[in-house]
Amino acid sequence: MTAPGKTRRLFLLAAILAAAVVGSLAVGAVWLRPTEVFTAVASPSESTNPAARTIVNELRLPRALLAACIGAGLATAGTAYQGLFRNPLAEPFVIGVASGAALGATAVILSGWQTLVFGFLSPIPVGAFVGAMGAAFLTYSFAAAVRSESVAGLMLTGVAVSTLLNAAVWLLMAWNDQELARTVNWLMGSLAGRGWPDLRQTAPWIAVGTAGVWALARPLDALAEGEEVARSLGLRVRLVIGLVLAAASLAAAAAVAAAGIIGFVGLIAPHIARRLVGESHAALIPASGLLGGILLVLADALARTLTAPTELPVGIVTAALGGPFFLYLLQRRRV
Questions:
Q1: pLDDT tens digit string along 84-112?
Q2: What parts of the sequence cross the membrane (predicted)?
């Protein structure tokens, strides 16, 4: 596909994401007319319906924007892991990174640690990042130690690491049963109650992580051909692997710290993006990010409306979508 063709498709995805965000503002336990949504967003001070203004500007708009950011972060991380491990089934949930981030964030939450790290960093994203990095290196190291190069090998290693880390999470919760209900709700993946402060805390981390992955697009193209090919091109393979892991894990950790474990966004979005823009990471990374944002915004809108006024955790919706997609990929590749 030519570069202009890819650019047009990226602009189309951006337009679809914007439309999904705007459309999600109208749905939920209280449905709003398009005119009410437009007035509340375009002229909030002149809105004739104060309730609609509050629902749109204080509840749904920050939540939709946060869903777009989290979806983009998870999808970008999934794209990076798939390129790095040369494995189409790699994504934050499958290879254990999400569980590692959950362990780090849960440890911070249950410890009651509120002191800013280095005077300006919120402790929960820092804990999630440390956990995500640890999980990524564990999965990569264990897979390398057993010399597992098959598509199923990394997946099984990630499942093992994820299981161990999840066990640690539940152990922490058992020791702190007074926080059990709150932590379980967070682990299911939910955007309920999220607002502007959450968006302000999360968006910069995801932006840095996704920008870092995008900056490494050309090295990822080389690594996708194999480490020997990358070395022959003069690439410092270990350094690049470390940078990709750090950037992708930062994006995934920020997403998990904000909304809990939301699986399969990082698996579905990159596969659809490849059909649209091809394998080159320069176009694949932004396309995956936009598709991830679209997917999570729509999934969150669905979670708010399916059983209204009761709200489903969005992690349940993405799992319901991602599970069959994952099985389809396994069947297609015969692994």
A1: 878 777 778 777 888 888 888 888 878 87
A2: 63-81, 93-114, 120-142, 154-175, 239-269, 281-306, 312-330
Backbone angles phi, psi at 306, to 5 degrees: -60, -45
Domain residue limits at 224: 3-333
Q: pLDDT by residue (tens digit) across 147-193?
A: 655 545 666 777 888 889 988 888 887 787 666 666 677 678 889 88
For the residues of 88-120, what is the DSSP string, one character each?
TT--TTTTTHHHHHHHHHHHHHHHT--SPBTTT
The pTM of the full predicted model, rounded to 2 decimals, is 0.88
Six token digits for residue 120? 């300006």
Q: Looking at per-residue confidence, does 241 or 60 come out higher? A: 60
- Please list the alpha-helical segments (H only) found in the chain: 3-24, 34-42, 50-54, 61-85, 97-111, 123-145, 151-175, 180-187, 196-215, 217-223, 227-232, 237-259, 265-277, 281-305, 314-333
Q: How many domains in the chain?
A: 1
Overall size of the chain counted in residues: 335
CATH code of the domain in which 257 resides: 1.10.3470.10
